[in-house]
Amino acid sequence: MREHETTEYLHIVLISIHGLIRGHCLELGRDADTGGQTKYVVELAKALAKQSHVGRVDLITRRIVDSEVSADYAEAVEALAENAQIIRIDAGPEGYIRKEELWDHLDSFADNLLSWLHSQPHWPDVLHSHYADAGYVGVRLSHLTGLPLIHTGHSLGRDKCRRLLAWGLTMEEIEQRYHISRRIDAEEDTLSNAELIITSTRNEIEDQYELYNCYTPEKMAVIPPGTDLDQFHPPTADTASSAFAASLNKFLYQPDMPMILALSRPDERKNIVTLLEAYGESPRLQAKANLVIVAGNRDDIREMNEGAQGVLTELLLVLDCYDLYGQVALPKHHSAEEVADIYRLVASSKGIFINPALTEPFGLTLLEAAASGCPLVATENGGPFDIIGNCHNGILVDPLDKAAVTEALLSILDNPDLWRTLSENGLRNVARYYSWEAHTQAFLQKLQPLLQHFERLPKTPPVARTGRLRKQAIFTALDNTLLGDDQGLEQFVNLIREKRRKCLFGIATGRRLDAVLAILKQNRIPRPDILITSLGTEIYFMPQLIADIAWSYHIDHLWTPQVLRRVLGSLPGLTPQPKREQSRFKISYYYDSQLAPPMEEILTLLRQKELSVNPTLSFGQFLDIVPARASKGQALRYVAQQWNIPLDHILATGGSGGDCDMVSGNTCGVVVANRHSEELSNLSDMEQVYFAEQSNAWGILEAIEHYDFFHL
User: Fold this and answer.
1) Is-contact 617 623, C-beta < 8 A?
2) Confidence (pLDDT) at 204
3) pLDDT attached to residue 469
4) Closest Cα partner for 476 from 683, 701, 646, 706?
5) Tally of CB atoms within 10 A around 6
6) Which residues in the chain come in under a pLDDT of 70?
7) Taking every annotated instance into account, which residue ranges of this chain make up the domain Glycosyltransferase subfamily 4-like N-terminal (predicted)?
8) Own/partner long-range contacts of 24-29 (Cβ < 8 Å, ≥24 apart)
9) For residues 40, 42, 45 and 48, what is the CA-based torsion angle, rounded to 10 degrees?
10) CA–CA separation, 707 and 278 (whole Å)
11) Based on C-alpha coordinates, what's the Rg of the chain?
């Protein structure tokens, strides 16, 4: 029986790692990471919690301890509702960093979140990741727990890369600034492993997801975000007397004229400079309406990040160039609570809301403005196509065509009957298509089938009886790590024998069990407490060599070896290894780099064939394919939970590609020096991974001293 069947209520975990997330006064527009996604996940958590058969919602994000931001973000737990809460998980530096700098810390985030999940009374029913970084974490947690994964991308790396190249940036510049290859790899992996992909629009599927190798329309569902219709509603009698309305008087000569409102982050992609130029070039538009640009909050432009600083500086220069003083408002501050008042102020002035972004993944601001009674003019690229198509409340334009933008605005401003029709259409159809009630009902309907065929690992696996008081462990790979220097090996073996009473000893290898036992005997290595063999697909407990059947059952999920052999069998440069190197859950080839396709192409092929696998190239010549849920690192974490040993009390050592996820994350990771350690060079910037100067067992001994391991 699955654990969640003990109750009729669902437990949903939402993961959204970056940005500043809290349940009140969201700092929308503060930076590029704190925008629509942060609002979406908070509103989604609250809306799901209101559903009668949802028992608990946890919104997981990163904990931030930083004097430059509110102390709210340092609180480990924040209540959103009686059955919903924000949980903040530590990962990486305490301070606030932008999402592009989070990649090296996501393995640690995943380990810390897994530990938190284990501390809870029950497993949740489902994981729902948001954006690529959360997808990276969600895939790992899904593999480790057996929980189904739902993913919402919000925006996609391949589409972003395509547009950045069109703007003139080089791939080198894009990679350096955005770590775009890591993001795209994470997105491909997430698309391959998620059970359901939720998108906001059909356009998102057809124009963005189709760029991916794992493009699978059958598992994608369009569920538009909702709008809080209690907060966003048409103007009331006191709208014109709001505090924000008063603040505009210092900018505008005729504040009672209709307003054209643009509200977004000061981001180049939002294209608000082009909007201001279009306004400045049209005396007719200036005679018809004021322009109000709400571009985040600022105290001193000079202290803002480079992107925001550039956009705001350009706005001021354009404003001055066209001498638009008294006709354009560029307020410095607004609160999240004032946003609804701003929309209503525009609607009461018979004005228009415009989103001139180069591309807009969805467009929550369009829904909010429409729910407040504003007609829309919006970019034709992305989500607005669906929103205006459903609501019939505005005009789509080419955001780079200033004449088209101007004409669309004037066509509404010049025609009061059209303005009224568009406003009424928006009010009626936003309530029909874009309420949170409709969103959560559709979400839960899509979720139900996923819960029927998933078997979770036991939440608290049985702890081994023998040696359960040992609270440390050393796990090491064999070839080119532990083995290779007889004198160093002798020193290491003596140390293991000395510390055996307080420290577990484990071997994690790509070799089969029989080969490992022969090597241990030949080199007089004491039998380990735990053997992880065949690249993490088999786990054995000493001294009786008891196989962990639960682990075998867990990793068998979606494993199709016959299909895999058929797909790879025709590729040049791949030669099957002898049967003694193969096993039930490991298919192994010799890899000839002169003839075989690059690993990137092999990975693309596997994804296109929808094969749920984990391929690894070790020592530059051995290609092993195992189930997606199997690896040395995943097996190590399973064992650590069984023995109740914290990951930061485990020394994990390796020297080739197959050791990557074992030495990263929260373990005391070690890469010993050898000619194959360059396969792990991508870990060199991670503080928690130690690159030893010495090779083989000497490198392990060096790392034990580096970590002062036996005094942790």
Assistant:
1) yes
2) 84
3) 64
4) 701
5) 9
6) 1-7, 240, 453-454, 458-469
7) 35-231
8) 25/335, 25/336, 25/337, 26/336, 27/70, 27/297, 27/336, 28/296, 28/336, 28/339, 29/264, 29/265, 29/266, 29/294, 29/295, 29/296, 29/297
9) -50
10) 61
11) 28
Q: Is 252 helix (H, G, I), strand (E, B) or coil?
A: strand
Q: And the tokens for 329? A: 């408002």
Dihedral over alpha carbons 78, 44, 443, 448 (to 10 degrees): 10
Which pLDDT score, from 0 to 100, does residue 1 have?
A: 28
- Are 135 and 14 in contact by the 8 Å Cβ rule? The answer is no
Cβ–Cβ < 8 Å for 49, 63: no
CB burial readout 165-188, b (16+ within 10 A) else e: eeeebeeeebeeebbbebbbbbbb
- How many H-runs (helices) and E-runs (strands) does the chain carry? 25, 26
Element (H, E) at 584: none
- Residue 118's contacts (CB-CB under 8 Å, 6 or more residues apart) are 459, 460, 641
Beta bridge partners of 531: 507, 540
Give the 3-state secondary structure of residue 182: helix
Cβ neighbors of 631 (< 8 A, separation 6 or more) are 535, 536, 614, 616, 658, 661, 662
pLDDT for the residue 468: 54
Distance CA 424, CA 427 (A): 5
pTM of the model: 0.86
Q: What is the pLDDT of residue 305?
A: 84
Strands 77-81 and 394-397: unpaired
Tokens matching residue 330: 């560029």
Can you say how many angstroms the Cα of residue 488 is from the centroid of all Cα atoms in its chain? 42
Q: What is the pLDDT of residue 78?
A: 98
Question: What does the alpha-carbon distance between residue 220 and residue 197 come to, in Å, rounded to a whole number?
Answer: 5
| 8 Å CB contact between 475 and 670 | no
CB 106 within 8 A of CB 13: no
Burial class (CB in 10 A: 0-12, 13-18, 19+), 231: middle
Nearest CA-CA partner of 486 in 533, 524, 541: 524
CB count in 10 Å sphere of residue 466: 10
pLDDT value of residue 5: 42
**Quick one: how far is CA 362 from the chain centroid?**
17
Distance in angstroms (rounded) separating the CA atoms of residues 84 and 9:
13
- The model's pLDDT over 314-334, given as tens digits with 9 standing for 90+, comes to 999 999 999 999 999 999 988
Residue 674's pLDDT is 84
Task: Transcribe 314-365 into DSSP letters.
Answer: HHHHHHHHTT-TBTEE--S---GGGHHHHHHHHHHTT-EEEE--S-BSS-HH
Q: Please tell me whether residue 2 adopts helix, strand or coil conformation.
A: coil
What would the pLDDT profile of 335-393 be if each residue is shown by its tens digit? Answer: 888 999 999 999 999 999 999 998 887 788 999 999 999 999 999 988 899 899 999 99
* CA–CA separation, 615 and 638 (whole Å): 20
